[in-house]
Amino acid sequence: MVNQLLQQSKDWILKNKVATFLSVALFAMVITTIALAVSNNSNATDLEECQAEIDAFYATSTTVITSPGTTLEVTTGTETNDGTTTTMVSMETSPLPETTTTTTLPTTTSNPAVVNYRLPDDNIPLHYDLELHPDLVQDTFQGTVTITILHVRANEQVVLHSHLLDIQQIKFKCLNDSTTVYINSNYDDKLDFLKINLNKVVPQDYISELTITFSGKLNAGIVGFYSSSYTDENGSQIFPDPNGSDE
């Protein structure tokens, strides 16, 4: 009897495939709808809990420090007569502690304790012609130098370094103005400056030639132009040969 019912059911399903498929699909749809309803109900509960927490948070006063000495107080959740919620904002500024700002600027005045041996930059040497004539017997030398100078700023004095030299003659010739001449000179012992004074100001960008004849001693010290020698095994004083070989 049971086998007969199973066979009849099987035959009915085979004959009604469409109806069977629709029944299964309808059952699956019902299950899905139930699951979505349960999920939505759970989400709605979560949203209600979050909203309750937010409402509780906004129902209190919040104090925010916006900057040193400034307090911003925000009070929310105050319900008015028409049922709306207002937000109250108040700002209180307290005095800041006194502070002192010290700015150190570079000094523009020179320290009198520091000696500056650099030459003034009013004049720039463009070219040197130098002749030296040493006398190794007398330990002296003679020299002549001609300096081509560019006057980058208008000035009436040329300053050079000079140490242990006997200045014999000075000639100055301005290539742009023949009336500008040398008048006198003075010497700064502390800085070893030879200051050559002119009869008038030389304009900017003029070019001149300065010729100086001088003399000095070769044995004045190991400074500048000096002589050196050594004693060989026989006790003879030997002067190094400038060409690279000793006699």
From TrEMBL:
InterPro entries listed in its UniProt record: Aminopeptidase_N-like_N, Aminopeptidase_N-like_N_sf, Peptidase_M1_aminopeptidases
Single biological process term from Gene Ontology: peptide catabolic process
Stretch forming the signal peptide: none
UniProtKB keywords: Aminopeptidase, Hydrolase, Membrane, Protease, Transmembrane, Transmembrane helix
Regions crossing the membrane: 18-38
Keyword Glycosyltransferase: no
Keyword Transferase recorded: no
One Gene Ontology term, aspect cellular component: membrane
Aminopeptidase N-like N-terminal domain span: 125-236
Pfam families registered for this protein in UniProt: Peptidase_M1_N
Lineage top rank: taxon: Eukaryota
Molecular function as annotated in GO: metalloaminopeptidase activity; peptide binding; zinc ion binding
Protein name (Swiss-Prot/TrEMBL): Aminopeptidase N-like N-terminal domain-containing protein
